[in-house]
Give the backbone structure.
Amino acid sequence: MKDDSVIELTNVTKTFGTTKAVNAISLRLLPGEVYGFLGPNGAGKTTTIRMIMDFIRPTQGEISLFGKNNKNGMSYALSNTGFLSADNALYANWTAIQHIECAENLKGGSSDAHKLAKQFGLKLNAQYRHLSSGNKQKLALILALMHRPKLLVLDEPTRGLDPLL
């Protein structure tokens, strides 16, 4: 593992029973690099992202963020990571502003949330359940971006968004 890497996967494999979802993937991303997974459904893209985010653990191999792996400081790495899931599920009765305030309280300090909401054209007082799928995605993007993370992990970030946005 190199300390200057943002993400490093070394021979990462994930199996579910007899199904090999990810097979010995290795990659190293440095600061400023952009990387995308492309492939058909079932190729292991989301599984790899879930392992990077430490939601599931690899069957074999090692993953590190900012030089820290899940054995020695992944919580630091994840606290500097913005994440957008392919399947967002936020609190139905909360407004967008309540979600933002909760994230601000958890992460501490001010954020770019109001500026981003204005740029995206998101109304902050509507309950999540009343938002269109595009506005739900905008809120999820704001939550991922609002604290200016050092690493941004996005799983299908344009799902439901107007192509002009």
In short: The radius of gyration is 17 Å. The longest strand covers residues 19-29.
